[in-house]
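Posting for a labmate who doesn't have an account.
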Amino acid sequence: MLLNAPQKTFKIDYEHNRFLKDGQPFRYISGSIHYSRVPRFYWKDRLLKMKMAGLNAIQTYIPWNFHEPLPGNYQFSGDQDVEYFIRLAQELDLLVILRPGPYVCAEWDMGGLPAWLLDKKSIVLRSTDPDYIEAVDKWLGVLLPKMKPLLYQNGGPIITVQVENEYGSYFACDYDYLRFLLKRFRYYLGEDVVLFTTDGASEKFLQCGALQGMFATVDFGTGDNITNAFLQQRKSEPKGPLINSEFYTGWLDHWGQAHSTVHTSAVTSSLSDILAQGANVNLYMFIGGTNFAYWNGANMPYQAQPTSYDYDAPLSEAGDLTDKYFAVRDVIGKYEKLPDGFIPPSTPKFAYGRILMKKLTTVEDALGVLCPGGPTKNLYPLTFNQVKQYFGFMLYRTTLPQNYSDPTPLSTTGGVHDRAYIAVDGTPQGILERIGVWTLNITGNAGATLDILVENMGRINYGSGINDFKGLVQNLTLGSSVLMNWTIFPLDTEEAVRSHLGGWEDHDSGRHLRASAHSSTYMLPTFYVGNFSIPTGIPDLPQDTYMLFPGWTKGQVWINGFNLGRYWPAKGPQMTLFVPRNILVTSAPNNITLLELEGAPCRDYDPQHCTVEFVDKPVISSMETRKMRRDSKWHSGADQAP
């Protein structure tokens, strides 16, 4: 710092109900972007588009589990380099509103809390439970010192820092927990930074979420009465700036439900009214992004969120400019001067076409590479946490204790978290689910192998159910007998895809596959592989694309070892997965690995149907799918889509 340089300050002016930035009145107009949902390759593009919309700040969460996947294993490089992301925002003259949790919600797995916290089964999350507090204290001791140099008064862009998130919506209402967090944030960040809380705009939520020493803000959307919402904030904060920390530009999706949208006119009308009151506002989301890999959350009663977090936001999942973007920009321009300069265009997309897939191996036959450390044996089923498996899949195996020549119910009362694929001696039997499907009739002889592949579809991110254990969380009964003597295989799909299941050149497709003569509508969970080369002679390739799954049912997909996420066109609404260009290569074929869990369009007599397709337009609404089916490029296999 230069000698005699003026000290940068960011403070609350309680007397005049506003912020003061370097002594001058200031109002932020911010937008939410989650760096964990956008590839680092595209951070600058998205941030610049946000700036050119008239925003003077951005808001981001820090998901704890994104940076500490295992206790003491800290990851802050590449796509996890949050310090670089914050500095990049500053380079673009954007201020930062930081929401470091430790709980963030965000429709993110377990609300950002690491799943390994549940290794202690009785832990009370978001409370003064000693084990929880100890873990939080260690994490804050790693994270917050990294943030301190980035605070505004220290020359960085961070103007305010949220402590916890919507705590008033949680059952614990533990003021000692909030006091502990306040003390630790002050210890690491100092006395000058503005700390705040966010809660729903109601007295009930603010009662347990607000705490003296942190400025209370509210969140609300287009359907709420703005005057009443800010009156609720005033009950906690009689003076100071009015702040909507989450003004909803759209809404979240769940598998099996319609894609959520919020009309642009409703967004712009409410936004204009908020700005007309002189209030500060953060648009949640300004860009939603993608729940790559297994990062999606879920709500109760159990409903998992899809891979796309498009959110009907002003910038699409792929960062494209929308009509909502320009409408919001026009509103902001009525209250603040818009920046001069060029708005970066939407990125080009390329339709690489249909790619032939080949069967490689079933999960059962690939256990050697999927579980190289070998299985665990236990009298009763163990949860994911009990064998230190936190994401993806586990296979539970036992034998039938007697002959079951007549269909016999295999059942559990909500004990499958979240979806289980059942097979007897390699013959698919059907599916058990966490909600709704608790019983399945099976047949088999004494000593037959019963395999149950359980999928963790994402942990609950909101409410009292965030302590969300995965796997077989209760015993299973077959008829009147409790099944025992389990062999449990935690599956390391990521390493297996990178090292063994990533391409087809060296494989005799089908050599591992057992033929099974059955009429089941299900198939064994099976890996499929394919590849495609980027066309030469076309400039600026590779480009972003979207992956379509005509005739496929449900599964997980990797490209060049990168876990793109879950697909489930049989359920919808999302039909395509966004493929960012940075995971594609031109120097070699791009390898595709699919783990199809239920049913593929791959028939031995007509392998041409065994394809995926790369298209240049997203389909995140099942209604759009019906329209696309009439498109000529969809026939010849695409008509197999559900």
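Reply:
Got it, the structure tokens are right above this. Confidence is low (pLDDT under 50) at residues 504-519, 625-642.
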